[in-house]
Amino acid sequence: LSQHTRSKSSEVSQPSVGAQASPMASSPFEPYPARLRRLLRRWNPSGMLVSDAKAHAATKLLSDPRAASFAEASEVEAARCTFEAAVHPVLQQPVPSAFRICSFVPVTTIAAIGISSSGSAAGTLFWHWFYQSHSAAVRYCNYADTSRDLDPRQMTAAYAVSTASACAIGLGALHSRLPRRLTLAAPHLALCFAGGLSTWINSWPMLERGVPLLDESGVAIPGVSSTAAARATVERAALLQAVLVPACALLLPTAVIRAVLAPHLWRTAPQLLPLAASATVLGSVGGLTPLATAAVPAYVSLAVADLEPEARERVAAEATAAAVRGTPARVYSDRPLY
């Protein structure tokens, strides 16, 4: 969900006008409507249709302050949207269409329909493998070579463990003698477990080193905090990846289909059931998921009193150096969740 876009090396230039050039693509105080608009723009599937030529043209415009100053404001904004949707923020090369952030809605919808409707072992294995493979590819294509460190071995381990766990839970429920109501929740539980494992393994370097902090004005505080990484960022990321997204993509639409659509349409218009079920999943993935995700602030807030002693001292020292009256009550992780 999170797209962190800062370069590890000052030798890499970024578009001077592009939104991605700023460490704070959003604000810690960003209201819910603004977060929702940003998510809807980021997950807009039309970004998959952006050609490489158009992506290169947008990057060229945003990289040239002189050209951008002569362009219409609407043209610059369109170029910025194209850059965000289709271009790697550091390498400034087009990301393959199928692995762009904006592929979330169509790919998740297809995977959710396949996972929830599959009744065979082969189908269960395929759809869980498909979903986990796509998630890993999106992570690599959009986050590699940014300030978010991605260890290839760690990514491979996270991919293998999450895929194996999802397939194991799916197959176990398929061949178990559990009540039918419990087996219906198996796809949801499989994605929850896999999402939590993947998030934890991929975030391990951040847990070891800690994350930088921002004060209430959005100004960086020197040093890092392991407490912020462990108690805030990773936990909140796991909430999104292991709870909210699977619930919106699988649990709720499956419950609606089984409890409402199937009993009614099976008697009156069975030929409409596949179409109605697909529309329900699409509406839940494309509508409910961003609504629920935006309810979680992108920047995780943490009380200064909950930080480790060293971090509290740095916050107090920074406040004193900046001639701020009193130590701020709260700080923010500078790693946005989305």
TrEMBL record:
<keyword id="KW-0812">Transmembrane</keyword>
<keyword id="KW-0029">Amino-acid transport</keyword>
<feature type="region of interest" description="Disordered">
    <location>
        <begin position="1"/>
        <end position="29"/>
    </location>
</feature>
<comment type="similarity">
    <text>Belongs to the sideroflexin family.</text>
</comment>
<dbReference type="GO" id="GO:0015075">
    <property type="term" value="F:monoatomic ion transmembrane transporter activity"/>
</dbReference>
<dbReference type="Pfam" id="PF03820">
    <property type="entry name" value="SFXNs"/>
</dbReference>
<feature type="compositionally biased region" description="Polar residues">
    <location>
        <begin position="1"/>
        <end position="25"/>
    </location>
</feature>
<keyword id="KW-0472">Membrane</keyword>
<feature type="transmembrane region" description="Helical">
    <location>
        <begin position="273"/>
        <end position="300"/>
    </location>
</feature>
<dbReference type="GO" id="GO:1990542">
    <property type="term" value="P:mitochondrial transmembrane transport"/>
</dbReference>
<feature type="transmembrane region" description="Helical">
    <location>
        <begin position="238"/>
        <end position="261"/>
    </location>
</feature>
<dbReference type="GO" id="GO:0005743">
    <property type="term" value="C:mitochondrial inner membrane"/>
</dbReference>
<keyword id="KW-0813">Transport</keyword>
<keyword id="KW-0496">Mitochondrion</keyword>
<keyword id="KW-1133">Transmembrane helix</keyword>
<feature type="transmembrane region" description="Helical">
    <location>
        <begin position="104"/>
        <end position="130"/>
    </location>
</feature>
<dbReference type="InterPro" id="IPR004686">
    <property type="entry name" value="Mtc"/>
</dbReference>
<protein>
    <submittedName>
        <fullName>Uncharacterized protein</fullName>
    </submittedName>
</protein>
<dbReference type="GO" id="GO:0006865">
    <property type="term" value="P:amino acid transport"/>
</dbReference>
<feature type="transmembrane region" description="Helical">
    <location>
        <begin position="157"/>
        <end position="175"/>
    </location>
</feature>
